[in-house]
Design goal:
By secondary structure, this protein is mainly alpha-helical. About 75% of the residues lie in helices and about 0% in strands. The chain contains 23 helices and 2 strands.
Length: about 500
């Protein structure tokens, strides 16, 4: 253990040194004629950020602080293209990089964390999980289906894949251990790996299920001056996600074959767990009512009313704290909110906004297009190459949110600058966000994967055994949907 920790520390130190070294090399290179000095320096900072994120050299909140400081200094002392005789100024540069903290998407992510805390405080998420599992029976295949269905239901009400896995994991472990089944068994691995990988596809389907989707929505709002209604996102992604989860259900059972077909006594243990949580409390009923109302407002936004998703969520959070109605107080919520992730999210959106503002994202988009000879590519080829690139590069990222922050501004610049007949920039950007959600190959590719891996129910090889074929199938099905359903509804 000590050796492992030492090796990890060394790797992190190497990552930090490498990040600064590469930044220095990029800054030392002459600026291209087609790129401003500020844009050149922002590409250096983007590369620095990617190395930090891929190597986990520092925590995400610390990386956000370093990126903010570097942007304020390096961009601040760059010539202002609008007034070449003057510099941007550190004050103006700082305003640009912290602009992400005023983004509606940023506010929505913060609000979503309060929903997750409310679920955990009341135990409503656990009750939903146990009710679903008690209804499916004791066959392993049925319990596995129950785990997937539970993840599906929670994805609508808990806007965090990590929180959903944190709810499901102890229930799965409780069932396994109570029946005297080894945690390292194929049964335990199937349930845990399946729940984690199914969550990836629920993230794709539901706009509010994952923070990385909201990063994309934030950039779309600010750079395309439009938005994607919650229900439109659902209608576009649901057929794909439902099909992929169905395929996942059968593929995982074929590749992680359980030792037995039925968990005898499992129904008794689940019944005991249900008795332990007791009857539904008043706070659970309040939370359920507010959550259903919020889901209704999300689903009807732009159809029955004009209230945006962020505003409806803020209203729900206000009700959580409202005297006489509320289900928790600030004293409980404050220490249970992941403020570090909020800092990372705001800085990530800010970084993307600065890349777009300085035209660095546009320059990188031209480089990408030239590298893959996409100047005259068809819409299908454009989507195929960009999706493959994003899925592969995700192998080096532990956070889809970080990947979205780095890549969606470049994607927007590519699609906005491409002149293929019939290209829908908004639709293609949304499809690329689906590709960014892929994190199926390694547990470290997503926070929920790390939560599941921490249960010690499977090893990396087991995760990869299903993750690699599901990634290939998922990519191929994206191409099929690009030629069919997504083309029919005008996305591709």
């Amino acid at each position: 253990m000590l050796t492992s920790t030492t090796n990890r520390t060394k790797a992190q130190n190497i990552g930090l040194v490498l990040a600064f070294l590469v930044l220095g090399i990029i800054l030392a290179l002459p600026s291209p004629d087609t790129l401003s000095t500020g844009g050149h320096r922002m590409i250096g900072i983007l590369t620095f950020a990617i190395i930090l994120w891929m190597s986990s050299a520092v925590s995400y909140p610390v990386s956000a602080t370093i990126i903010t400081a570097l942007t304020a200094l390096l961009l601040g002392f760059s010539p202002n293209p609008e007034a070449p005789a003057k510099l941007y100024g550190t004050s103006n540069a700082l305003k640009l990089i912290i602009s992400g903290f005023s983004s509606p998407a940023m506010v929505l992510v913060g609000a979503a964390m309060f929903i997750s805390v409310a679920m955990r405080k009341t135990g409503l998420d656990r009750r939903i999980a146990l009710n679903v599992l008690s209804a499916v029976g004791t066959k392993v295949s049925r319990i596995y289906l129950g785990v997937i269905i539970t993840g599906f239901i929670l994805a609508f009400f808990v806007p965090s894949a990590t929180a959903r896995l944190a709810c499901l994991a102890p229930i799965i472990i409780g069932i396994v251990e109570s029946l005297g089944i080894n945690k390292k068994s194929q049964v335990a691995a199937l349930l845990m790996v399946g729940a984690t990988q199914a969550d990836t596809f629920w993230n794709i389907m539901i706009q509010t299920a994952a923070a990385q989707n909201l990063v994309a929505v934030g950039f779309i709002q600010t750079q395309m001056n439009t938005t994607i209604p919650w229900i439109d996102w659902l209608l576009a992604a649901a057929p794909y996600s439902m099909l992929m989860v169905t395929i996942l259900y059968f593929v995982t059972q074929a590749l992680i074959k359980p030792e037995f077909k039925e968990l005898k006594g499992g129904d008794v243990h689940i019944a005991n767990m249900r008795r332990e949580i007791g009857p539904m409390s008043l706070n659970e009923k309040k939370l359920l009512a507010i959550s259903i109302g919020l889901l209704f407002l999300w689903a009807t936004g732009g159809k029955l009313h004009t209230i945006d998703t962020t505003t409806t969520t803020i209203i729900a959070i206000a009700l959580f704290f409202f005297p006489g109605i509320g289900i928790m107080d600030w004293k409980f919520a404050q220490p249970n909110i992941d403020w570090g992730s909020i800092v990372m999210f705001g800085a990530g959106i800010g970084l993307g906004s600065v890349l777009l503002k300085t035209k660095a994202a546009t320059w990188l988009a031209h480089v990408f297009v030239s590298a893959f000879s996409l100047e005259t590519a068809s819409i299908f080829l454009l989507i195929a190459i960009m999706a493959a690139f994003l899925i592969v590069i995700h192998l080096g990222f532990a956070s889809a949110t970080a990947l979205s922050s780095a890549m969606i501004p470049i994607v927007i610049s590519i699609v906005m600058g491409h002149d293929a007949d019939g290209l829908n920039p908004l639709g293609v950007t949304m499809l690329m966000q689906y590709a960014i959600c892929f994190g199926l190959v390694l547990p470290v590719n997503s926070p929920q994967g790390m939560v599941a891996y921490g249960t010690d129910t499977f090893d990396v090889k087991t995760f990869m055994r299903t993750g690699i074929p599901m990634t290939i199938i998922g990519y191929l099905m994206m191409l099929v949907f690009t030629l069919t359903y997504w083309h029919w509804i005008g996305l591709s």
